[in-house]
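Quick one, tokens below. Sequence please?
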């Protein structure tokens, strides 16, 4: 691999430019955090304003259409919010087969347009690997497990945190893979491959293709409070992001989980069974009595952070046959064993005495 020599003066200028960019992003994140602190009513007004702005720009300035990318409770709530306040005929689009059966039923009831994934879940795992930990971490591990001359520089950054020109010649950057994952995937050789490609083949590409065919741009139910890439990107890019290549709106970007659940109640959103019910705890906060979040039934992103019951536990309860297939036949059990996620032992969700609808008291509602 050929390396272009860069003078220390040039490196210094590039570092300075990168630091200026990072400082600007820090300012944006600080301003975004202030918006997240606003009361519920103000956030609803902002969501409406941003949604209407996007609708006007896309339909008038670009003479195009808009739609909602629909999945679980967050985007179901967004879909009904937009149909009530922006356009009663706005379309919802979903690769519904990826979702829990109870979510699929709601999609059919609401008339959501159903798309098909480009590859099956089984094909993706067998061809590329398992979607586990997080998308960012999966990208890094995939690079390390598939070394090439082309990715030599990025692999060095993943192992050390030392970046090249694109990363501003920095040390200890976010590019470094956390030590806990290096111990499992660098110091040891994992008995399975890791990949983030499931999202592309199962959902992103089918939705992007539909959008291009219909000259349409999406509303997404993303919230920065969910963490991960969303927590990094949304504060910097804002609720509405419009560029030559990308046009999208995330009206709920500044929402908390509490804001989302309150709006779902206000709009009387049909809550899929996988979530249970939306109830009020003794401290006045809202919660769902079963799954706190959902996704593709075989997705392992974030499961290491969830207390039990995680969504694989929910799958075991609702569809033991499918759970058995993923955990034993498709090898998710060995993946969870490797990263330290409990899955084979039983779990219970105990209620204390006197629990009732409207004021439920759980030993730990987010178990």
């Amino acid at each position: 691999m050929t390396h272009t020599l860069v003078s220390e003066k040039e490196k210094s200028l590039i570092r300075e430019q990168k630091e200026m960019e990072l400082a600007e992003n820090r300012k944006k994140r600080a301003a975004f955090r202030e918006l997240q602190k606003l009361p519920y009513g103000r956030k609803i007004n902002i969501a409406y304003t941003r949604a209407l702005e996007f609708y006007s720009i896309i339909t008038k300035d670009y003479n195009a259409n808009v739609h909602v990318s629909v999945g679980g409770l967050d985007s179901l709530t967004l879909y009904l919010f937009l149909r009530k306040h922006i356009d009663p005929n706005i379309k919802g689009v979903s690769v519904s087969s990826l979702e829990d059966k109870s979510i699929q039923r709601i999609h059919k009831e609401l008339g959501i347009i159903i798309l098909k994934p480009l590859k099956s879940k089984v094909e993706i795992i067998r061809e590329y690997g398992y979607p586990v930990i997080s998308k960012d971490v999966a990208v890094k591990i995939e690079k390390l497990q598939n070394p090439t001359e082309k990715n030599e520089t990025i692999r060095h950054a993943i192992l050390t945190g030392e970046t090249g020109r694109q990363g501003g010649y920095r040390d200890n950057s976010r590019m470094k893979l956390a030590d806990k994952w290096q111990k499992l995937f660098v110091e040891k050789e994992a008995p399975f491959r890791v990949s983030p490609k499931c999202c592309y083949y199962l959902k992103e590409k089918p939705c992007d293709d539909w959008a291009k065919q219909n000259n349409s741009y999406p509303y997404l139910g993303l919230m920065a409070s969910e963490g991960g890439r969303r927590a990094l990107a949304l504060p910097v890019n804002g609720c509405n992001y419009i560029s030559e290549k990308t046009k999208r709106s995330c009206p709920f970007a500044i929402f908390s989980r509490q804001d989302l659940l309150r709006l779902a109640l206000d709009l009387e959103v049909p809550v899929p069974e996988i979530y249970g019910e939306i109830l009020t705890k003794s401290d006045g906060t809202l919660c769902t009595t079963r799954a706190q979040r959902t996704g593709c039934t075989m997705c392992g992103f974030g499961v290491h952070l969830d207390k039990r019951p995680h969504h694989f536990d929910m799958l075991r309860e609702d569809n033991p046959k499918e759970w058995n297939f993923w955990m034993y036949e498709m090898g998710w059990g060995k993946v969870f064993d490797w990263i330290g996620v409990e899955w084979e032992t039983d779990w219970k969700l105990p209620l204390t005495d006197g629990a009732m609808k409207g004021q439920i008291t759980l030993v730990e509602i987010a178990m």
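The first strand starts at residue 65 and ends at 69. Residues 267-367 form one domain.
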